Amino acid sequence: MTTVIIGTSNFYPIMSQSEHYEPMMYLSKECFAKRNKKVCKKALNKIQLYKSLENLKDNYSCQTRLLGLEAQLIMVIMKMTEERGLSLGMLRDLQKNCSF
């Protein structure tokens, strides 16, 4: 397991990469399952942070997948999709390609 230092303040404790991404994954799954706009917006906020972190690591493959996830969440918010299987597959792909 790789440990990434996210910060040392009370707001961003040192944690493993997988622990750091868990809230985003949980919120994204909840968004796809419940179609709750508030939960989807929280997931989008998390993704914004993670895209910045992946940019610092020059992990463009992961960044691209995060952009795709962002697009799917926006489609849920706008009620433009009912594709749950595609969305869950995207989360699995994200885990594989972002190493968490």
Kindly describe this structure.
This protein has 100 residues and is mainly alpha-helical. The chain has one domain (21-97). Helix content is 70%, strand content 4%. It is built from 4 helices and 2 strands; from the N terminus they run ββαααα. Strands 1-2 form a two-stranded antiparallel sheet. Helix 2 (37-56) runs antiparallel to helix 3 (60-77). The longest helix is centred in the middle third of the chain and has 20 residues, at 37-56. 22% of the residues are buried.
Determine the number of helices (DSSP H or I, runs of at least 4 residues): 4
Indicate the low-confidence ranges by residue numbers: 1-15
Number of strands: 2
Beginning-to-end CA distance, first to last residue: 9 Å
Query: What about the largest sheet?
Result: 2 strands, antiparallel
- The radius of gyration computed from the alpha-carbon positions, rounded to a whole number of angstroms, is 13 Å
Mean pLDDT: 81
Structural class: mainly alpha
What order do the SSEs take from the amino end to the carboxyl end, as H and E?
Answer: EEHHHH
Strand order of the largest sheet: 1-2
Percent of residues in helices comes to over 70%
Percentage of residues in strands:
under 5%
